[in-house]
Write a structure and sequence with these properties.
8-stranded mixed beta sheet; 6-stranded mixed beta sheet; 14 helices; 15% strand
């Protein structure tokens, strides 16, 4: 399952890995299932979260072990025999849902759904988001595992063959239903947006202390001069404008105003500015073609231990926190910004991994999703590759074109079906000029969110446990009944 994620993987490996875990749980007692679940989580997250090893070895190990615990708990809740297929799909889907919520606001990175792009299950994000994609992958793995068990021991496998058959119907129904469900296009004419994504380029794996902010800013200005146009929207990445004081009235603000006027285009850019000695703001600002500031959005989902340190006084005893001297102030709002070029749902970097953030901006009226991000500090291509997968899932979930832009890549254009139409190379300066439709329709995910998936997973998991309890009760009753 870990190898199925980019940049290493191939989507069938995720389903086969889920099948292997299903087989490993067969017939085991709770402690054995706990061990198998923990091993499965270690296998997945020590691979899929390997990008964290670059920053802190102890933190990487702790992070992967915490994420693995979710799988361990899920495995304990799965019946050993009867009800296994439904219980497996339900419990592991709930584990993925829990990972999105806790700890510190959740960590969706490294999840199995990110490895399903390119396969038939990805389209189900249109119905229930990335959580449904993960659930469909686990359920498909349970079906394959059941088939293998039946081949090994027909008598043993036949006992839950009806569950596997029902699961096949469910997965096929989900894929077919998603294929014919609304894709976000909506009714009426579609307005076309002419946009330019600006990637300044530069060496990767470096932080702000190693690359002065002025260098990053100058690279963005230089590449913007290469925009041929005419364009209505120019998008810069996250925090390419890194201030040491207030942004308002600064020389950088005047430069952005000038660029917007010269290109007669709306300019969207990422800005960071300090607030006192211990806090800062991570904002996306938009300037109109007249050079006026028309929108500001402040990032809502902060990166724990990257943009802020939870329980700083406690963790300072175990790690050097000098790399995160200030804590980002959490923003509020839907993420939708209204500009002369259109209404955009904005996902700032880490937020792209959270389906509910994309849904929030689209429900508020976003017609195109913008993902200004900055993965320059990652030396490998693992985190940028996973981020592209997250953008592709967002495109399917929200039924919108996604424009992602990063200082050193990847920058990309993704259509509403999750296909990457254009993508930059890492480290290389680039300007991507594109034309995309501004869509107004709603997918079923935008309409209902993840709640139906969570409810179904709960029903499947509790139903499987109920079958076990009912069967055990009947068995004990037969034993206690007097013989005739």
């Amino acid at each position: 399952m870990g190898v199925s994620l980019p940049p290493l993987g191939w989507w069938p490996l995720g389903v086969l890995g889920a099948a292997a875990v299903f087989l490993g749980l067969s017939g085991r007692r709770p402690l054995g299932r706990l061990g198998i679940g923990m091993l499965a989580g270690i296998g997945q997250f020590f691979i899929s979260l390997a990008w964290a090893l670059q920053f802190n070895t102890a933190g990487y190990v702790a992070l992967a072990l915490v994420e693995a615990l979710f799988f361990a708990v899920a495995a304990v809740l799965i019946p050993a025999r009867v009800g296994r297929v439904a219980g497996y799909g339900g419990a592991f889907t709930l584990a993925e849902w829990a990972r999105e919520k806790w700890p510190f606001g959740g960590l969706p990175l490294g999840g199995v759904a990110l490895g399903q792009l390119g396969g038939p299950l990805a389209i189900t994000a249109r119905l229930g988001g990335s959580l449904l994609v993960a659930g469909a992958a686990f359920l498909s793995g349970a079906v394959i595992g059941s088939a293998i068990e039946w081949r090994r021991a027909p008598g043993e496998g036949t006992r839950h063959a009806w569950e596997a058959a029902a699961a096949v119907v469910v997965v096929l129904a989900l894929v077919l239903g998603a294929t014919i469900s609304p894709d976000g296009t909506g009714a009426g004419p579609v307005r076309l947006l002419h946009a330019a994504l600006v990637q300044g380029g530069g060496k990767r794996g470096l932080n702000q202390l190693q690359v002065p902010p002025a260098v990053v800013f100058a690279a963005a200005v230089r590449e913007t001069s290469r925009v041929k146009g005419p364009v209505e929207l120019i998008v810069w990445p996250e925090d390419v404008v890194a201030e040491t004081g207030p942004f308002g009235g600064s020389a950088d603000e005047h430069t952005l105003e000038r660029i917007a006027r010269e290109h007669h285009a709306t300019l969207v850019a990422g800005v960071t500015e300090p607030v006192g000695a211990t806090r800062f703001r991570n904002e996306i600002v938009a300037f109109s073609p007249a050079g006026r500031l028309v929108a500001v959005f402040e990032k809502v989902h902060r990166v724990p231990f990257g943009e802020y340190v939870p329980y700083r006084s406690f963790f300072s005893h175990f790690a050097n926190l000098s790399a995160v001297p200030r804590d980002a102030i959490p923003g509020h709002g839907s993420g939708m910004i209204a500009t002369p070029a259109g209404r955009f749902g904005v996902l700032v970097s880490y937020e792209v991994f959270f389906a509910d953030r994309g849904r929030s901006g689209v429900r508020a009226g976003g017609e195109v999703v913008l993902v200004p991000t900055n993965t320059s500090s990652y030396a490998s291509d693992q985190a940028p590759s996973q981020e592209i997968s997250a953008s592709r899932l967002q495109a399917i979930e929200q039924g919108r074109y996604v424009l992602q832009v990063a200082p050193t890549g990847y920058s990309a254009v993704v259509n509403q079906d999750g296909d990457v139409l254009e993508q930059s190379r890492l480290s290389v300066p680039a300007v991507i000029e594109t034309t995309v439709p501004e869509l107004t329709g709603e997918t079923l995910f935008v309409r209902f969110g993840q709640t139906p998936v969570v409810v179904l997973a709960l029903v499947a998991s509790l139903g499987a446990l109920g079958l076990v309890s009912s069967r055990e009760w009947r068995r004990r009753r037969r034993r206690s009944s007097p013989s005739r």
